[in-house]
Structure formats: structure tokens, C-alpha cells
């Protein structure tokens, strides 16, 4: 499934399937991208605001990214600036663990984009994105977590248990 947005204002696209347990991984391929846009990828509650960037309200958790860097955003606050951006052809991976760690992580082209983005996630969450200014993405769902990313995540779980 693909989504695009031509307008300057962000628009949120929300999945029709929510998750309350399990480990879930999906990827989004950036099919069209202009260097002055900042798409956001993540999760949201069903009642997230649909007319602003994902993460601006307290119902969305996201990584917004441009061609050079990214930030994590929730409740309008953004933090953890990380170098490395996206371009046309990039793939953004999203790993949501609602079983063991209750965390959300992001990957760009199979590389971690920052550390764990969000912790203590409980409830029902829907995969979500927000787009603006000519961005088109394609969603790839029901994927197995790539082995090297799963190993990284299992290492994090192990460190949590030992702490």
C-alpha cells in the first residue's frame, strides 16, 4: 500500500489494524522525496490528530526525519537528534515490542536511527505516518524482524534484565 501527500500541511495516515501485544516490524520505502520535507514514522492511538505532524499531540509517537538528521517526538516535545537522514529510495524500519520491553525503535536502511525511541508503551497502538510536500511512501507489513536487528533488540532485552 502506498500513501502520498501534495500539500504543505502534514496529514496523518493511520493503519486500520492496532496492536496491544506481540513484537511487530514493518518497513516503509520512500518512493518520492523532496529535500525540504520531513516525514514522520511511528505509532498512534486511534484518536490521534490527523491534521498535524505525527507526535505533535500526546496520541502519537514518531521519528521525524529530513535529509540530514532525525528527532523523536511525542506530545509536541522532540529530543534525541541523530545524524543521518533519508532520500528517495531509503527504507525506514519500525520495531514495536509490546511483549518484553514495551519499546519503539527506528531503523534507516537497516541501521539503528538513534537508540530506543520510546519506552513504557502500553495499550493499543496503530502504525502511523505523517506526510507533506510531495512525499510518497510504500508500506511493507507482516515482516519478520531482520536477523541483525533482532540480535540488537535481544541484546537490549538482555541488558534490561541484568540492570
Please give a handful of descriptors for the protein shown.
163 residues, mainly beta, Jelly Rolls, six-stranded antiparallel β-sheet, 12 strands
Tell me what the structure shows:
- This is E3 ubiquitin-protein ligase trim9-like protein.
- Residues 1-148 form the B30.2/SPRY domain.
- With 163 residues, the chain is mainly beta.
- The chain has one domain: SPRY domain (Jelly Rolls), CATH 2.60.120.920.
- The protein contains 1 helix and 12 strands.
- It has one helix at 147-162; strands at 2-5, 11-14, 23-32, 40-44, 60-65, 69-74, 77-83, 91-97, 103-108, 111-112, 126-131, 135-140.
- The strands form 2 sheets. Strands 1-12-3-8-9-10 form a 6-stranded antiparallel sheet, with no helix packed on it. Strands 2-11-4-5-6-7 form a 6-stranded antiparallel sheet, with no helix packed on it.
- Strand 6 and strand 7 (77-83) form a beta hairpin.
- The radius of gyration is 15 Å and the shape is globular.
Principal-axis shape equals: globular
| H and E string | EEEEEEEEEEEEH
Considering the protein shown, what is the CATH homologous superfamily?
SPRY domain
Secondary structure category: mainly beta
Name of the CATH first level: Mainly Beta
Query: Looking at CATH, which topology would you report?
Result: Jelly Rolls
Question: What's the arrangement of secondary structure elements?
Answer:
Blueprint: E1 2-5, E2 11-14, E3 23-32, E4 40-44, E5 60-65, E6 69-74, E7 77-83, E8 91-97, E9 103-108, E10 111-112, E11 126-131, E12 135-140, H1 147-162
Antiparallel strand pairs: 1-12, 2-11, 3-8, 3-12, 4-5, 4-11, 5-6, 6-7, 8-9, 9-10
GO biological process, one term: axon guidance
Domain B30.2/SPRY: 1-148
InterPro entries: B30.2/SPRY, B30.2/SPRY_sf, ConA-like_dom_sf, E3_ligase_FN3/SPRY, SPRY_dom
Amino acid at each position: 500500500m502506498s500513501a502520498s501527500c501534495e500539500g504543505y500541511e502534514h496529514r496523518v495516515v493511520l493503519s486500520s489494524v492496532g496492536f496491544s501485544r506481540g513484537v511487530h516490524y514493518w518497513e516503509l520505502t520512500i518512493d518520492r522525496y523532496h529535500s525540504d520535507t520531513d516525514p514522520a514514522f511511528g505509532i498512534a492511538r486511534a484518536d490521534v490528530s490527523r491534521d498535524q505532524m505525527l507526535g505533535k499531540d500526546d496520541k502519537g509517537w514518531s521519528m521525524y526525519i529530513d535529509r540530514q538528521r532525525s528527532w523523536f517526538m511525542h506530545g509536541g516535545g522532540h529530543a534525541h537528534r541523530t545524524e543521518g537522514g533519508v532520500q528517495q529510495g531509503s527504507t525506514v524500519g519500525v520495531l514495536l515490542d509490546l511483549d518484553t520491553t514495551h519499546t519503539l525503535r527506528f531503523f534507516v536502511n537497516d541501521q539503528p536511527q538513534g537508540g530506543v525511541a520510546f519506552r513504557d508503551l502500553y495499550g493499543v497502538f496503530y502504525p502511523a505516518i505523517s506526510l507533506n510536500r510531495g512525499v510518497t511512501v510504500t508500506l511493507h507489513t507482516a515482516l519478520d524482524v531482520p536477523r541483525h536487528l533482532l540480535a540488537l533488540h535481544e541484546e537490549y532485552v538482555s541488558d534490561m534484565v541484568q540492570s
